[in-house]
UniProtKB/TrEMBL annotation:
Keywords: Hydrolase, Magnesium, Manganese, Metal-binding, Protein phosphatase. InterPro entries: PP2C, PP2C_BS, PPM-type-like_dom_sf, PPM-type_phosphatase-like_dom. This is protein-serine/threonine phosphatase. One of its GO terms (molecular function) is metal ion binding. The keyword Disulfide bond does not apply. The keyword Manganese applies. It is an enzyme of class 3 (hydrolase). The lineage of its organism: Eukaryota, Viridiplantae, Streptophyta, Embryophyta, Tracheophyta. Its cofactor is Mg(2+); Mn(2+). Its EC number is 3.1.3.16. SUPFAM superfamilies: PP2C-like. Residues 43-163 form the PPM-type phosphatase domain. It holds the Pfam family PP2C.
Amino acid sequence: MGAEAEVMVQLQHTIPVLDVPCCSDLDVKSPESTILQFIPSIRSGSFADTGPRRFMEDEHIRIDDLSAHLGSLMKFPKPSAFYGIFDGHGGPEAAAHVRKNVLGLLFSDTNFPETSEVDDAFLEGVESSLRKGFLLADLALADDCNVSNSSGTTALTALVLGR
């Protein structure tokens, strides 16, 4: 049960705060056991430019809230985000193909670890699943008849899990 409150700051601005639990609503044995955890919000931006080339061959993906993007499919530590840059060469097809399919390939491993906490075992499981996912991406790219044999891509990705 939440209550609505207002907080005054030094500059005399009023900031509404919603869903502040009342002390009587907290199920706590002692104040020392109450730990409020700050979960940072991740925000990003992007820019792409063809430069001196005639055509753009590169692609990118940026997902600032991976948990929300994947929905109930997977449980990740918060915050979670995924970013990728796909540097195409020999045409745009390979970079576009990988961008379109990368999430499904990387996170389709049934052994992909799910947890709200990050530890060594979790990180080893993530690394193993990502290696398998990139191998699947490479095989899928080779099998796609719509992608020219002269087209390729280099991928740089970042997976942010937890603080």
